[in-house]
Design a protein that fits this description.
alpha+beta
Length: 140
């Protein structure tokens, strides 16, 4: 009985998470709307134990909030650049963290400030929230 309960809870957690990601074409954000959506916003995302809170500075700098601007050990810092490209089905937001570390995503609306970033391999698919300004997502 205990084993069945554990399996049921694990299955429910997995199936609920999978249902949240929505990469269907009818929810896709494209062209100029994509650049407008992410520019000036902090993307809050989690994947397992990894957490991102990256500010999309207008003009292309990507700023990781980390633990805040004045934190003595893990301060806010530029970690790369971001850009958008394409139109229609080729629209993508891309991140360049340095040589060999470039990731590209389709962006889909789910509800309110919630979005799904559908990664092109090797980038993962992520459920994210967008917050206006350069702010903490409250992870730490």
């Amino acid at each position: 009985m205990k084993r069945l309960l554990i399996i049921s809870v694990v299955w429910l957690a997995w199936s609920s998470g999978a249902a949240m990601a929505d990469c269907s074409a009818n929810t896709r954000i494209t062209g100029n709307a994509l650049a407008t959506l992410v520019s000036g916003k902090t993307v809050c995302a989690m994947l397992g134990s990894e957490k991102w809170q990256e500010y999309h500075k207008p003009g292309g700098d990507l700023i990781d909030w980390k633990r805040g601007a004045n934190h003595p050990i893990d301060p806010t810092a530029k970690v790369g650049t971001w850009s958008t490209s394409g139109s229609g089905s080729s629209s993508r937001v891309s991140y360049n963290y340095g040589p060999g570390k470039v990731y590209s995503y389709e962006v889909h609306s789910t509800a309110g400030a919630a979005y799904t970033f559908c990664g092109d391999a090797p980038a993962p698919t992520l459920d994210v929230n967008l917050v206006s300004g350069q702010v903490s997502c409250g992870f730490y």
